[in-house]
Amino acid sequence: MSTSTLVNSFGAGDALDRSAVDRANLCKVCHDDRLEVFEHTARCRNCGVLLFFPYPTSDMLVRGGDRKALWLDWYCESGFRNARNFANMIEFALGDVSTAKDLAILDYGGGGGQFALTALTHFPRAIVSMTDIDNAALLPQYRSANHPIPFEQFEADATRFDIIFMNDVFEHVEHPERVLSMLAGKLKPGGRLFVDTPKTFWLFPVLRVLCPPIYRKLCRGTVTREHLQIWTRRAFHRVAGAASLRVTRYAELSEFTMPPEFYLRSMGIENPLLVAAGRLFYRTAGWLAKNKIMAVLERS
């Protein structure tokens, strides 16, 4: 599909700035020009990252609605999974640190603010700050556990942190290298940056070759105007290095936040056989799929 056809397929209300599209023929992670376009995505043949494409303008990414209600619904549906995932992230990033330490923790892109409760359970002397592009997202249930920093004031804020957590955030940011560089400057000496983010795995290339219609559904459910990039190991290490960060701990794992029905809905899968196959895949994903990157980064 040509770029012009792809732009027009979004409709007049979603039209992209043409000059921005013309400048966006390179992979935003490795700057290679070998982009393989499929529907609304582009896969970089050099670093492998899967991108929302053409790159949307910032105004296309603004989300509306009652954010508090949306976050409350999200936490209700994610249930026990979220708490387990948070605990695993904290142990992965800080398992070698005394739980009695007075840590300065930042939850970057913290949404409704639930992460602070889990962090304080592990490190009761910590101070957990939170910032999110949607300042109104912080739920009153979690406000007492967080020290909110308004997003528009965050870059100028002088607070420095022992560790910054980015839990399911790195796939959302427009300019990953720029964000990592900015956050690196927010770390105390010896500080750490933790990232947990989706990655592509074997199902993506298999469906791309063997079953494009199902691959289209997979892309529709995983690459959106909120999920702007799905990472590979190579792309992740490249962007970390470009931001003058070194990866000191890295793992790939199977991790889900929501029940299988959530992902099937997002992909628009309704065929009973495909629904059954999707549920089976979800139950066996611990052995079949490593769909997440979990990493600790430090300044070079």
Structure in a nutshell:
The chain folds into two domains: 3-60 and 202-222, no CATH class; 65-196 and 243-299, Vaccinia Virus protein VP39 (Rossmann fold, 3-Layer(aba) Sandwich).
Please state the overall shape, judged from the principal axes of the Cα atoms.
Answer: globular
The tally of helices reads: 12
The helix content is: 25-40%
* CATH topology value of the largest domain: Rossmann fold
Uncertain runs:
1-22
Number of domains: 2
Q: Radius of gyration, Cα only, in angstroms?
A: 19 Å
* Strand tally: 11
Strand order of the largest sheet: 6-5-4-7-8-11-10
* Overall pLDDT level: 90
Q: Tell me the β content.
A: 15-25%
The CATH class of the largest domain, by name, is Alpha Beta
**Can you identify the CATH superfamily of the largest domain?**
Vaccinia Virus protein VP39
The run of helices and strands is HHEEEHEHEEHEHEHHEHEHHHE
CATH architectural name of the largest domain: 3-Layer(aba) Sandwich
